[in-house]
Amino acid sequence: MIYFDNSATTQILPEVLDTYMKTSQRFIGNPSSLHRLGEQAGLLLQKSREQLAALLDVAPSEIFFTSGATEGNNWVIKGTAAAKRPFGNHIIISSIEHPSVSETVNQLAEQGFDVTRVPVDATGHVQPEDLQPLIREETILVSVMAVNNEVGSVQPIRAISECLAAYPNIHFHVDSVQAVGKVPVTDWLTDRVDFATFSAHKFHGPKGTGFVFWRQGRKIAPLLAGGGQENNQRSGTENVAGIVSMAKAFRLALTDSEQKTAHIRAVKDYLMASLASFDKVRIFSEHSDTSAPHILCFGLKGIRGEVLVHAFEQKEIYLSTTSACSSKKKVKSSTLLAMGVPESERTTGVRLSLDETNTLMEAEQFMIVFKQLYQQFSQINS
Ligand code: PMP
């Protein structure tokens, strides 16, 4: 089996799973319980919070646990909208955000919020000079992802932060899901970022666990009301084993990340150069430092992305159409649309997403199968 779908989800690491199991078995208490078992579970949560905070160089009180990035993105956006409504109703997002951001602002638009989408260029990057003129007195939130999940474009978060420095009342949210371990933290968690959202299963942690970095002093409304967990901001019994193992996975993801990304980029470069040598292939991801090392999006002229995905599946090679989240909804890629890719090519998009466990040999095997499929499809189309 070759697994090239790591942006959809990653396999949990054995040592992370071990932590999950041991924590589940040994720490059975509810962190809110008054007795010793509750206290022990609560201390573990605090330790995980401190570990995550130290890795991000932020305060432990700025880390809030969630069930994942969909919840985190909904919380930051809806929470900002609710808390800041008296000051304004204008929200800016990039035109290539994940549906957990774009669909959330669509809901808010139905409630009377005014949403502006900042365009991207042909390589899928927001230009800060395009963002600046869109800012108004009523703007309450700007949301731009760190790394696009469909084509891998790395957004200029530092430059956008500089642009937003003059507007301290606007919340700046960065969906950081695809950046962990792939782009240095310092590139996207700038002093101007108020909120950053994360999902553990994208960095070899367990599914159903995530966290939000929430800068002290910013105000958002709680998303979930209830027992008052997470400092009264996110109610619900904490997923203790998930959180403890997420903290471990996050530490491992950031360990030796330069070495790991150099390896991933070498595999991606090989795939990119090999695919580009075929006449009917169009590469949608950029070949540069402003493209994440692990995501490569391409299309084969005249062949729908899902056809290629299923053809590779027959050979036990696992890929996605442009994003796993929207593939079952049969929506065409919003990122390719925003990049100005013509309609006929948008349906062809296929995404390879790599991680450090993938090898050059797997990439070579992928290319052998690709060559066979290319010949088959060329015969059908000729
Ligand atoms: N944002 C981005 C950029 C993503 O790639 C994903 C996962 N596809 C999410 C948010 C949502 O993460 P989850 O499904 O784990 O909630």
From TrEMBL:
The lineage of its organism: Bacteria, Bacillati, Bacillota, Bacilli, Lactobacillales. Signal peptide: none annotated. Keywords: Aminotransferase, Iron, Iron-sulfur, Metal-binding, Pyridoxal phosphate, Transferase. Pfam families: Aminotran_5. One of its GO terms (molecular function) is iron-sulfur cluster binding. Residues 2-365 form the Aminotransferase class V domain. This is Aminotransferase. The keyword Iron-sulfur applies. Belongs to the class-V pyridoxal-phosphate-dependent aminotransferase family. NifS/IscS subfamily. Its cofactor is pyridoxal 5'-phosphate.
